[in-house]
Amino acid sequence: MTKTLLILAHPHLQKSIRNKLIAEELATENNLEIRDLTALYPTYNINVAEEQKKLVEADVIVFQYPLYWYNVPPILKLWIDEVFTYGFAFGKGNYQLEGKKIVVSCTIGSNEDIYPAEKLEKIFFPLQGLANYCKMDYLAEIVSFGEVYVPGESKTGLENSAKKHAEKLRHFLRSVT
Ligand SMILES: Cc1cc2nc3c(=O)[nH]c(=O)nc-3n(C[C@H](O)[C@H](O)[C@H](O)COP(=O)(O)O)c2cc1C
C-alpha cells in the first residue's frame, strides 16, 4: 500500500482559509498522514530523526504551503535544511529518499494572470533542485490562485478555490498511488 506524507507548512493555520481547508479535505484519504509542522514544532525545534523516519516510510511526499514572498514559509525551509542532511538524503552513496515521489501543493495569493509559466518555473525551481539532488522523483505542482483575503469580506470565493485545489490534489494523488 502506497503511503503519502503531507507536510503542512502554514505559520498561522488558525487564520488560514485555503491551506486549512485543503488539509481538512485530504485528511480522510487512505494511507495519507498529515504533519502540521507548526503544531509539531511551535518553537521550531525539529525532531530530525523522527522526520527522517517518516520520510523513509513514505512513498509520496506532498509539500502543502502558502506562497510567502515567492518562497516557502520559514518552517518549511528550516525543516528541509535540517532533515535533508548529508549521509541521509544525499552524499556518501546514501540516498535514502531515492525514487520517492514529490508533489508540491501551493496556494498563491494573487491572480493567475500575474504568474505566467516562466515565473512559476522560477518559484518552484529550488524544490525541483532539491528533488533532483536527492534522486527523488519530482512529479508536479498543484497550484491555485486567488485574492488576498480582506477581513470582513466574504470567504466563499477562497473556500471554493481551496475545495477545487483539494479535489485536484486528491485526484492527482490517487492517480500516482
Ligand atoms: C508573509 C506573506 C507573504 C506572501 N507572499 C506572497 C507572494 O509572494 N505572492 C502572492 O501571490 N501571495 C503572497 N502572499 C499571500 C498568500 O500566499 C496567501 O494569502 C495564501 O496562499 C492563502 O492561503 P491561506 O488561506 O491558507 O493562508 C503572502 C502572504 C503573506 C502573509
Task: Tell me what you see in this structure.
- There is one protein chain.
- Helix 1 (18-26) runs parallel beside helix 6.
- A 5-stranded parallel beta sheet has the order 2-1-3-4-5, with helices on both faces.
- It has a single domain (4-176), classed as Rossmann fold.
- The chain has 6 helices and 5 strands.
- 40% of the residues lie in helices and 18% in strands.
- The longest helix is centred in the last third of the chain and has 21 residues, at 156-176.
- Strand 4, helix 5 and strand 5 form a beta-alpha-beta unit.
- The chain is α/β, with parallel strands linked by helices.
- It has helices spanning 18-26, 37-40, 48-57, 74-83, 117-133, 156-176; strands at 4-8, 32-36, 60-66, 101-107, 137-144.
**Overall mean confidence score, pLDDT:** 96
Give the strand content.
Answer: 15-25%
Gap between N and C termini: 8 Å
Low-confidence segments: none
- Overall number of structural domains: 1
- CATH hierarchy: architecture: 3-Layer(aba) Sandwich
Determine the fraction of residues in helical runs and give it as a percent range.
Answer: 40-55%
Briefly note the CATH topology name. Answer: Rossmann fold
Structural class by SSE content:
alpha/beta
CATH class assignment: Alpha Beta
Spatial sequence of strands, sheet with the most strands: 2-1-3-4-5
- Radius of gyration, Cα only, in angstroms? 16 Å
